[in-house]
Amino acid sequence: MLPLLASAQSTLGRGELGLSIGGMNYIGDLNNQSVFGRPSLGYGAFYRYKIDPRWSIQVGGSLGSVEGGNPDAITRRNLSFQSDIWEGYARIEFNYQPFGFKGKSNPWTTFLFVGIGMFGFNPTTTYIDDDGQQQTVELRPLGTEGQGTAEYPDREIYSLSQVMMPFGLGVRFKPSDAFYITIEYGFRKTWTDYLDDVSTTYVDPDVLNGLAQDLYDRTGEIDPGYHNPIGSRRGDDSLDDWYAYFNVSASFSTEFLFGWMRRKNCERK
């Protein structure tokens, strides 16, 4: 029993459970690749395991949303989107100073992290229907750039779940041996250019059906009578879309949260 109890104590002492809250923002065609887009609320939960005072592993998940769009007088697109985001990830962290162990670490440290994960999205947009009512519609089923049509066979229908790579930096504080505060900014590198449903060129509207013919090119809403020529640039397919998550998190040692259960079991034995 002694080795088992020692192992449980070590695991509890090295673990943390935490919650984060902050803002997500999008980087892509509809904000001209600006790193600082319009942030929306994001929040998450995570578990961290401290390997040693320098290295730790974190697994977790986050929920949030991103948005972007015009009007843009230069490109005359007048396109916009909003999408909820979910993500799950595993990452490794490196502390610049020893941190997180009783009596063997500094009260604060800066750190770097990198990992791998999955995220889900579903771009939508709003428009005014014929009755003057504002409606929200999912963009992927419309195939606004000819996805899934015989006329554009190279444009496949994109998946709403994709691989992403989180990386970034931050600073951590230890007000006590059981409580930690973290501030971080992390990018999510994706391998899709359709987070915003915008990637390549304007298609022939005759290959589109119904509402897609109204929403693939919305320039006429701000410049009546104008339509972008077939084949002209709608997006930049040389760059994939990204998103970022700035957050503040609070976490507690699992020893603090669950150590009483082990102590109670030991007393019974």
Entry keywords:
disordered N terminus, 269 residues, 8-stranded antiparallel barrel, elongated, 10 strands, two-stranded antiparallel ribbon, Porin, mainly beta, 3 helices
Explain what you see:
By secondary structure, the protein is mainly beta. The protein has helices spanning 2-14, 212-215, 254-268, and strands at 15-27, 40-50, 55-69, 80-95, 108-121, 124-128, 134-138, 161-173, 179-190, 242-253. The strands form 2 sheets. Strands 1-2-3-4-5-8-9-10 form an 8-stranded antiparallel β-barrel. Strands 6-7 form a two-stranded antiparallel ribbon. A hairpin with a 4-residue loop joins strand 2 (40-50) and strand 3 (55-69). Helix 1 (2-14) packs antiparallel against helix 3. The longest helix is centred in the last third of the chain and has 15 residues, at 254-268. It starts with a helix and ends with a helix. 33% of the residues are buried. Residues 1-9 have low confidence and may be disordered.
